[in-house]
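Field: COMPLEX_INPUT
Field: COMPONENT_COUNT = two
Field: RESIDUE_TOTAL = 682
Field: MODE = joint
Values follow.
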Amino acid sequence: MGILVDETTRVLVQGITGREGSFHARACMAYGTKVVAGVTPGRGGTMFEDKVPVFNSVEEAVAQTQADMALIFVPPIFAPDAIAESADAGIPLIACITEGIPVQDMVKVSRYIENKPTRLIGPNCPGLITPGAKCKVGIMPGAIHLPGRVGVLSRSGTLTYEAVEQLTALNLGQSSCVGIGGDQIIGTNFVDVLRLFDADPDTDAVVMIGEIGGTMEQDAAAFIKKEFSKPVAALVVGASAPPGKRMGHAGAIITGESARAEFKIAALKDAGAWIIPSPADIGSTAQEMLRSKGLTA
Amino acid sequence: MNIHEFQAKEIFARYGIPVPRGIVAANPDEAKAATLELGGRSVVKAQIHAGGRGKAGGVQLVHSPEEAAEAAQRMLAANLVTPQTGPKGAPVRKLLIEELADIKQELYVALTIDRGHQGPALLVSTKGGMDIEEVAATSPEDIHTEPIDPLSGLMPFQTRRLVRHLGLDQTVAGDAAKVLSALYRLFVENDCTLVEINPLIITGDGRVVALDAKINLDDDAMFRHADLLEYRDISQEDELEAKAADLDIAYVNLDGDVGCLVNGAGLAMATLDATIAAGAAPANFLDVGGGATPEKVASAVKIILSDSKVQRVLVNIFGGILRCDIAAEGIVLAYEETGSNIPLVVRMLGTNVVEGKHILGASGLPVTFADTLTEAAEEIKKLNV
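Field: COMPLEX_OUTPUT
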């Protein structure tokens, strides 16, 4: 059910004893996620919330608990090491929430994991959730989600929540929601996730939220045009951004014509995506799209 | 973080990249003395954190020390407005006085992070001295891009290939290759996000010289470069943006009158877009961040309120890591401390929203609540005065 995470996902949390790590590990567990281990070097042998064993290394945690996904909350200086450690331990899926990793550190670690059987989501992302499987691996507020058949894909955190909120308000449930992160160097891009949604029998349509900076939206548009088989509603934010100014996200900076919102929107429109005219219209545009395809009442 | 040309050239010199002889001047007398020292003629270059100086009058060739003093006087007197500075321009506090160069050929060289291959890339072009964006748009075949594996670094065969693409003859090829490898070491060791030389020149007597220098540094890596932090020039930054940066708040000053307080960069961009769609104009982009305290939220609100353009405030908080009650406490704190009565439209959702709205409702502030983004934008429009 859904993509990447479901009821069988066994999560280990790197940085589980920290302020953010402990808060969100608890929230994931409360939502229904199977958090099976924590890793904090030097804190091995203790228990988190009397339920989750903490290990000194990912290697030990995997051997003892068969964890198959890592959720990373460690500070930016240590996050690249945490990603590499999980990849080295053979973890197939990693979500790195950490914001502010130096780009050249990220460049090296993304090269390190390139030939390993590991998929990295993020960094600087909200994580991912499959509401129907009660599996939330990230920092999103669980309560706004509704199980359903729309896949949600975004570069942003809180804007993903906005999209989900609008969908849920119209009773349009979500199959899975994936925030891929706002940095320049990220492990998984739009096309990677679109491919997974395309193959997922529980996803009927996709809401995709892009922003200024880079050309990932154009890549997605080319993929949608060429082979994506399901309807897509797309929003691109940041039309008001002045060139050269970084809009919070390290990746959201206009450094060339193609990085502008209007070029991305034009590419997506040309690919046949339903263009969401304003951030307030995410839910209504998705509803209109689903109705026209006979996918909802 | 941006640094000045003369600072970038200091770094270049440390890495053995040849730069013209130059002297930094802060007034006409110093410019005059520098020109005298350089043999009576020089190029006077205004030091600002933006490109496009040449056409804007920020670079002047002078033929005497007196002319240098006059040029310095003129450049230091007013903000320099270029296509990259915005209409207000940037203040000129320092000038770089350089010896004249005998230019035989102008090349373009840059190093940056290429998202496509997720690593550094070296760009070269024989179209040096031109606007490279324009070259990229009109004749992309004139730019050669060399992706670099971050683990092995820039390999000698790659520098040889780049030099071949530049069509340089054997007499200068070795020196050009040295500049390219030094540039890569500089890029990595200083956590740069961009290093650009436009133009890199070949002189009449066959030397390779960086005539201009631009370096952007990775803010996220500055914790390990205390020495580079000393290059920060706050006079080149927008006053409110500099203040926000010191508080670790992502803020960009814009032209409108709607102050925006949002958590999350994506939602903040979306809020600006929705505001514009409703026919109003945002005064700023502001992402207060995830783990904010009431004090940090208050600081963010005070930055918004201290902006004289702001006539109305739009708050859009989706409580996740940041709880709505914390945001509300921060807003109330800022209004109490500043005594402001600028009206607010507040849209809050998510964690502790009931508590947050209660705090604002009981505060006596001029608050209008909205449930959705559409409603919030409409309420903001109604506040138009």
